[in-house]
Write a structure and sequence with these properties.
Shape: elongated
Number of helices: 29
Number of strands: 11
Largest sheet: 5 strands, parallel
Radius of gyration: 34 Å
Length: about 625
């Protein structure tokens, strides 16, 4: 490895593939080939779908760099000007989707024609007449040179809406196309002439069998998409155009379309089922993210970097009792961008802020709080177009437990519904309890409990079903929301009573005296222990209760038990211990009320636990009263 502290040189790359390529990390081995990359490279899939930050552009950049397998590579990334040209393109006589497919087909034909003219000059000894015709067509229509995509699209749109110069193909548009019944029909006829000219040139050069195909990719459509019908038509038109071009040009051209999952899933069109075989959705497992982290660490530091060095020396071995890599990747959404940001933030916290040569557990925890705040903001921005109300739903989960039931969420939503409806009147259909649950699950904010697992959206998982009642906030967002405990349970805090106990003249005692003559003090302490153990036993038997919720209840009862175990049960006065029983009974009542307020009732497996807590509260009040007639006795009935 190079000289200097390893941690100072450790870098996991940039969040965007374009800068990763520019700085060389992606090409030095920082790219991890995955199923989506292999399917795209082989041509088995045409449609690569993934969330923002899932690695679509990285695949795109890597394919561009792997130019040896293709005769040429063309990457189309529309800017706002180009997107506006496509969105507003219309043809009389054609529906919006079909009209926009024509402008995409024209764009593909022009890119293929430009490639063929250059390719024939560079790689073929002869230039067939069909290629010469393409060169004349490009020149006559101002498509020979480069220039901004938006300007070229505007020019092509005008040509399709009026007339293209087709003399290069032996067609005089004004005469030969005069009988077209509509503007749309005339544009389609003109485009067919151009496409047939391109197809003939591919055939005459024999490109399909002689070498790799032309690779034509479209990426970053999200930059020009909005949740409006014309934007959806723009994307549907792209799909239709690519499907048409694949059948027309055969193996001479390969198409790859990179689409964000929320955009693709929002589309509804009659031919959507024809694209199922072309789809591949990018998914990331924890192991894949581990492999990516190691590959990028090696690309920045050196090939000698090992998993043991990365996760055992540069990072702490464990964080909060959990193996570090698992801790990190459970707290980010399963996509490379989030993992890279979190890893880099840990490195910067240790190296830049604290000047260390190793990342400590404290550095990871500090970075985790910052990362969680970032991700809460980023999620709202990611879905700002499709779900502008998303940021206003997060307060429903603030400073409360991260396990939430449908009933508890319904109560919180009812209190906020009027304000949400007033702020977002166009989204009334979505702003219902089932609607917000569906949205929060789809964007990865909420997971749903299914059996013993909590499932978050991704891959082929089912949407939330109407009978499912228990949801968990993703660990990524908990710190930012102040929701780090499973359920919002107040801690048992007997400090005031303990102070009186410790200062109130308790005298030493010999435990052997209780073997023969148990005092009332000793019996009261035993009753407290018995109540705690009874609740703990009932909680452990609640097998259908969410494990995180069960652990949280157990933790709180154990806090009570810890306090009981240090009580001096040989006290001369019984008043303080009676006070302790009443205080504990009150806490148990509060605990039961909080469990019910969190929606943890019989439907979640918590009903028996709640009833046992309430029963022990009543029993402790009776014990505190006893023969002394404490007022606590009547309050427990």
């Amino acid at each position: 490895m190079a000289d200097g502290p390893v941690l100072a040189r450790l870098h996991f790359g940039r969040e965007d593939a374009e800068r990763d390529v520019t700085e060389g990390l992606l090409l030095r081995g920082g790219f991890l080939p995955n199923a989506a990359y292999r399917a795209a490279l082989s041509g088995r899939k045409m449609l690569i779908i993934g969330r923002k930050g899932s690695g679509k552009s990285a695949i795109c950049m890597q394919l561009s760099a792997d130019g040896g397998q293709h005769a040429g590579t063309v990457l189309v990334t529309p800017d706002e000007t180009a997107g506006e040209e496509i969105r507003r393109f219309e043809l009389q006589g054609l529906p919006g989707d079909s009209a926009k497919s024509l402008i995409w087909r024209y764009l593909f034909a022009v890119h293929a024609a430009r490639h063929l003219v250059t390719h024939a000059k560079d790689a073929h000894r002869r230039k067939p007449d069909s290629v010469k015709a393409l060169a004349r067509f490009l020149k006559q229509n101002g498509e020979s040179a480069g220039g901004r995509l938006g300007d070229r699209l505007a020019q092509g749109a005008r040509g399709l809406q009026t007339s293209l110069s087709l003399e290069a193909f032996g067609v005089k548009a004004g005469l030969d196309l005069a009988g077209a019944p509509s503007e749309g029909a005339q544009a389609a006829r003109q485009l067919e002439v151009v496409e047939q000219g391109v197809a003939k040139a591919f055939t005459d050069l024999g490109c399909a069998g002689a070498h790799g195909p032309l690779l034509l990719m479209v990426d970053q459509l999200e930059q020009v998409w909005s949740a409006e019908p014309d934007s959806n038509s723009m994307v549907i038109g792209l799909l239709l155009a690519a499907k048409h071009a694949v059948s027309l040009y055969g193996g001479a051209v390969r198409f790859l379309l990179f689409l964000r999952a929320d955009i693709y899933d929002s589309l509804s069109f009659g031919e959507g089922d024809k694209f199922r075989g072309d789809e591949l959705r990018i998914t990331w497992t924890e192991q894949a993210l581990r492999d990516l982290a190691l590959a990028r660490a090696r690309a920045s530091v050196g090939a000698e970097m090992t998993a043991e060095l990365l996760w055992g020396e540069l990072f702490p071995a464990v964080v909060e009792g959990e193996e570090t890599a698992s801790y990190l990747f459970r707290r980010c959404l399963p996509r490379p961008r989030d993992a890279i940001q979190f890893l880099n933030l840990c490195q910067e916290t240790a190296s830049l802020i604290h000047g260390r040569e190793r990342i400590t557990e404290g550095d990871v925890l500090q970075a985790g709080r910052q990362f969680s705040a970032w991700k809460r903001k980023d999620l709202a921005l990611e879905y700002l177009v499709a779900h502008p109300f998303l940021n206003h739903l997060f307060p429903l989960f603030q400073n409360t437990g991260y396990v939430v039931t449908r009933a508890a969420l319904g109560s919180r939503f009812d209190a906020a519904a009027e304000s949400l409806h007033r702020l977002f009147p166009a989204y009334l259909d979505a702003l219902t309890l089932p609607g917000i649950i569906d949205v929060l699950y789809a964007v990865g904010f909420l997971g749903v409990r299914r059996g013993n697992d909590v499932v978050f959206a991704g891959g082929d998982d089912l949407p939330v079903q109407s009978h499912e009642t228990e949801f968990h906030v993703h660990p990524c967002f908990r710190a930012a929301l102040g929701s780090t405990n499973a359920i919002d349970l107040r801690h048992f805090e007997p400090l005031a009573v303990t102070g009186r106990v410790l200062q109130g003249g308790f005298q030493g005692y010999n435990d052997t005296t209780f073997a023969t003559t148990p005092s009332r003090d000793h019996r009261l302490v035993q009753e407290l222990r018995r109540s705690c153990h009874s609740i703990l036993a009932q909680t452990s038997r609640a097998v259908s209760l969410a494990p995180d919720a069960r652990d949280e209840i157990t933790q709180q009862i154990n806090r009570v038990l810890d306090e009981v175990n240090v009580l001096p049960s040989g006290a001369a006065s019984t008043f303080d211990l009676e006070d302790r029983l009443l205080l504990t009974a009150h806490y148990f009542d509060t605990l039961a009320a909080q469990l019910l307020a969190s929606g943890l009732d019989d439907t979640t497996g918590a009903g028996e636990v709640v009833r046992r807590v309430q029963e022990e509260a009543r029993r402790l009040r009776r014990q505190a009263g006893g023969s002394y007639g404490s007022s606590g006795n009547s309050s427990g009935s």
